[in-house]
Write a structure and sequence with these properties.
This is Cysteine proteinase. This protein is α+β, with helices and mostly antiparallel strands and about 260 residues long. The chain has a single domain, classed as Arylamine N-acetyltransferase fold, CATH 3.30.2140. Helices cover about 30% and strands about 35% of the residues. It has 7 helices and 13 strands. Helix 2 crosses helix 3. The chain is globular, with a radius of gyration of 18 Å.
Length: about 260
């Protein structure tokens, strides 16, 4: 395929709806760590028909885009957290994204954000909402200064999604190229630090082609379209969770993974 915007849109949508966002590598493998080498990402996603989290999904997607001939570079982002007073706090650099340049315009690519990601590449433009799949996802970027920035030096972009009646912050990034060594540090923390939410519970998300999303977080299963929850139930035991992974994600868990 040619490195055009239409190709990028098709690839982004196909990859997002094919590969689930999940952290099962940290809970259901012997190593208990995500392999983010090119060989490891290819083996898990293509050969084993599994997904991964941002370092795995966006890592392999970046290599595919680069191989096709896109002008693309990786970036690091900080996940946003809402405080009790309504303010937003950004965490450490723990999320991987990519930025592609087509005909002089930049587009953010992210197939590894989980439940609130966007289906198609998002133009890097200030406050230009993108309404996808008839309202299944409404997203935008807003240019901001990091609240802890000294003298306003850290100018970047906040990715937000529309949640019913307001914009919700998701992550903040500065348009600056990151490197594989940066992601190795982030992956090490995410995989091994007991404070990491990915280490504390199983999290599996899938964005489906009709715009709906299905998720399993610990023992909670949810299916939603936009902000509307279509199904919600508690998985009462591990057998029900294994069945849900099969029925909703196509995962036939091996005996090793069940352990």
């Amino acid at each position: 395929p040619q490195p055009t915007l239409e190709t990028l849109r098709q690839l982004h949508f196909a990859a997002l709806t094919k590969f689930p966002f999940e952290n099962l590598s940290l809970h259901c493998t012997e190593s208990r760590i995500a392999d983010i080498t090119p060989q490891g990402m290819y083996r898990r996603q293509v050969l084993e028909n599994r997904g991964g989290y941002c370092y795995q999904l966006n890592g392999l997607f970046y290599l595919v885009l680069e191989r096709i001939g896109f002008k693309v570079y990786p970036c690091s982002a900080r996940i946003a957290h809402l405080l009790e007073d309504g303010a937003t706090e950004y965490g450490r650099l723990s999320h991987r994204i990519s930025i592609a340049i087509i005909d002089g315009e930049k587009y953010i690519c992210d197939i590894g954000f989980g439940t609130n990601g966007f289906f198609f590449p998002l133009p890097v433009l200030n406050d230009q909402p993108a309404n996808e799949l008839n309202g299944a996802a409404i997203s935008r970027l807003v240019q901001k200064i990091h609240p802890k920035s000294k003298h306003g030096a850290s100018v970047g972009w906040e990715f937000q999604h529309w949640q019913g009646d307001r914009w919700m912050p998701d992550y903040f990034f500065v348009d600056e190229e990151a490197y594989e060594s940066d992601f190795e540090v982030g992956n090490y923390y995410t995989s091994l630090n007991q404070k990491s939410i990915f280490k504390r519970m199983i999290r599996v998300f899938r964005s489906r082609r009709d715009g709906s999303r299905v998720s399993i977080e610990a023992d909670k299963l949810k299916v939603r379209w936009g902000a509307d929850v279509k199904e919600r139930r508690t998985l009462r035991n591990e057998r029900e969770r294994v069945d849900a992974l099969r029925d909703y994600f196509g995962y036939n868990m091996s005996e090793e993974e069940r352990q």
